[in-house]
Structure formats: structure tokens, C-alpha cells
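Input chain follows. Return C-alpha cells only.
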Amino acid sequence: MAGRRTLGQGSTEYILLVSFLLIVALLGVVFISALPSFAADVAARRSEDYWKYARPVAITSVAMYPNRLVLEIKSHSPTTITLRQLYVDGIPLMVYNHSIPFRLSSFTPQCSSSENCQMRLMPGELRIVSTENFTSNNPCVSGQQYLISKRFFVNLTITYNSSDGVLKNQTGKEKISGLCTLG
């Protein structure tokens, strides 16, 4: 009788060991499949942290719509600067000033469509700006489809005049990141 108990115990231990190994393998597959989204989340957080404290112009909020990029910007400059233009992945885009809070449904830029807004930013001032007709190279558009809730990363360069009138560029060390939205 003692031999039977040992055989049963060995079978039970074998089943438990195989079950444990299957659980570990399953957890490994789940972990490996979650790495890409985890990496994107880390990159998005790094981008957000960088741009929130960038100088002289910080980006505190980013949204991409089917045909325009909307940014909430804040001046960290000790003097007044004049925002001239944005370059997204090297493409120059005209900049428009909006009232706060921004609503896409009541979209009315505070400039005519034929001129480039030259917005003065006082020290610490918060503004909402958008780009005009950002349809080519829009990371949220694939063919004829708009990719809602897709995370995007784009290079951003801000052209501005400093208080002494010198034209300068601010290029981020991190890409800006946001989610594709419809409003």
C-alpha cells in the first residue's frame, strides 16, 4: 500500500509541475505581447514630460483631428515672443490662434485663411493653436481611413521671434505624442 501512495504522489507532483510550467509560459507570452504597447506608453510619457517643461515654448496638450493638429502651448520665456510657424515632420504648417476653451464644432480661427498668424506670447501665457489643412503626412490617416485613438509621434519645430526680433527655431529632443481624435 505504501507503493501505491508513492506512485499517486509522483503523478500528482508531475501534473502540478506541468501546470506550473504552462502557467509560466502563458504569463511569458502575455508579457511579451504587451511589450509594444508598454513601450509606446513609456515613450508617450517621456514626450509629455519633455514638452511640458520645454523652453521657451511648452506644449501642454496635443490633439490630432482628421485635417489639423491642435496644440495647447505655454510660454516659458521671461520675455514676449512671437510665434511664427510650426513644422511637423519638416512640413511647414500655418498656425492659427483660438480662444480657450477650444471646440472643434465651433472652429473659428482668429486669423484669415490667407495669412500666417503671428501670435505674441507673453511670459507664462497659455494659448491654443491649430494648423491649417494638415492632411498630407497626417499620422492619423491611412489611405481613406481615419485611425481613431491611435497614438502618434511626430517631430515638431517651432519658429518664433525673440523679444529682440531675431528669428529662432525650437526643435524638440522628443517627438510630440498624442491620440488621434474626432472631437
